[in-house]
Amino acid sequence: MASELRDLYQEVILDHYKRPRNFRAMENADRTAVGYNPLCGDRITLYLRMAGQVIQDATFQGQGCAICTASTSMMTDAVKGRTTGEADALFQEFHHLVTTPPDVDVEAPSLGKLEAFSGVREFPARVKCASLAWHTLRAALHGDKQATTE
Description:
- Helix content is 43%, strand content 20%.
- The protein is α+β, with helices and mostly antiparallel strands.
- Helix 1 crosses helix 2, helix 2 runs parallel beside helix 4 and helix 3 runs antiparallel to helix 4.
């Protein structure tokens, strides 16, 4: 069963890499931030349109490896309609999922399809690829113009 689940997760990641959702610049974005991972060369620009404290829309542009692109695509879907507080909580849960040692069981059912990234824990260098979008989201939400995963 574990290998079937891993295969399903890989399919989800590959789908979002090959056909990223929300991949476009956003005119009239309320907030933007640039994320850069110097180890892998991933670079993204995240655009947010806010309605008060609610993320009304989230899009991105840039280039990155499969893990970074898929994570950014899935993150933009996941945060739409959420408050800044809910997005921060989602960041914390995602960060916990990908940084917990691989020999420790982590269940994160509230992450839904984002749980597909649990496998990156086995590859520490890839954690930065998966989390770049999330650090960039926090930078945009908190008024920073740039985020890195150094």
